[in-house]
Amino acid sequence: MSPADFRRYALFYLGYYGALGAYTPYIGRWVVANGHGGYAVGAMLALWYGGRIIAPPTWARMSARSANPGHWLVAGCVLSLLGFAAFAGFTTGVMLFATMAWFGLFFNAVMPQFEAMTLSALGQRNHDYGRIRMWGSVGFLIVAGSYGWLLDRLGNDAFVWLTLPWLLLTVAASWLHRGDRPLPALVADVPRQALWRRPGVRRLLLVAMLMQLGFGPFYVFFTLHLQAQGHDGFAVGVLWAIGVLCEILMFWQAPRLVQRFGAQRLMTACLIATALRWVMVALLGGSFAWMALAQTGHALSFAAFHAGCMRRMAELFPERRDMAAAQGMLYGFSGGVGGVTGAGIAAVGWQHGGGHLAFLLGAAVAVMALLMHLVPVRALRPQAAA
């Protein structure tokens, strides 16, 4: 990949995850500020993750049939921008949730397509993925670390207007890929059942789903939990920034770690660290120092785990023609099913026991993911017909 291509791919990650850096930490704060409770926050995030179930496989099939898949990337980014802009006019009632469904559908549709484009462009140098994806973490860091302070001063109504420039950047970055060539074969030509049956695929999908499910309390209620424990907007932003800074550093080192230890062992360490992290957040949320320590765990919980998953995807699907379909399957199954379920469980935990119960549930799910990860591959293979 040439330096110019590297910049094209990095810019898209920067804009996309910059927008996500506003959405993920602060959408719950914005929803609560508009008079809604914990179940409404959970429903909003469930709609968001629900888009990951429907959109990626559908979008992948349609874009793969096109001679100009880059045009689909641009269209998805424009529709995402329009959907998020509608939040400025709809803050209550059915239209709030309809707007959420629209935005979640298109914003979640484009990333699996772009991930497949990135891995295809990298080819045999897939271990360099982390150094491109790192720029997404830079965008997330800039936004998540500053918007708590900005919202304290500008008011929660500024949330939508502060986020729109990042979505505009995503549209501009997607325009640079409008002429990208299609992947070698149609996604529609790849039998999903054949992909699912490959040894190791089911375990990876289930582990990724459980990891995402355990992240439910973090993505939905971490900001609200910190506020309930007495932290102001500046402290909340600093804590988010610590996590993302550690994520960036890990993405930079991830290629070396993956090559040295292998994806399986690295993911095991990530799952153990994640379970400990959620226990810490549940029980020690009032201490800034302990929360700062917990946030350093994001290097393993998110960055190293994500890099490990991408390496396993490259190992399980070495054929470039299968990559787009496989990415859509991973994104929909883990981020979609795991995200919706995680948001629902987090909302129930929050309503009945606040952040303490919600994050303890997250820790329990991380332990389940660890146990599933350690199951031998042969135990998950389909039984031969009698």
Summarize the structure.
With 386 residues, the chain is an all-alpha fold. Helices cover 81% and strands 0% of the residues.
What does this structure look like?
There is one protein chain. The protein is mostly helical and 386 residues long. The protein has a single domain (3-380), classed as MFS general substrate transporter like domains (Growth Hormone, Chain: A, Up-down Bundle), CATH 1.20.1250.20. Helix content is 81%, strand content 0%. The chain is built from 14 helices and no strands. It has helices at 3-33, 38-65, 69-85, 93-122, 129-154, 159-175, 192-197, 201-214, 216-228, 233-261, 263-283, 288-296, 298-316, 320-373. α3 (69-85) packs antiparallel against α4 (93-122). The chain is globular and about 50 Å long.
Using the 3D structure, state the CATH architecture: Up-down Bundle
What is the highest CATH level, the class? Mainly Alpha
- How many domains make up the 3D coordinates? 1
Q: What is the element string, with H for helices and E for strands?
A: HHHHHHHHHHHHHH
From the 3D structure, determine the CATH topology: Growth Hormone, Chain: A
**Helical segment count:** 14
CA gyration radius, whole angstroms? 20 Å
Categorize the overall geometry: globular
Overall number of strands: 0
Main beta-sheet annotation: none
CATH superfamily: MFS general substrate transporter like domains
Strand content: under 5%
Distance between the termini: 49 Å
Backbone structural class: mainly alpha
Helix residue percentage = over 70%
Poorly predicted residue ranges: 382-386
Mean pLDDT: 84
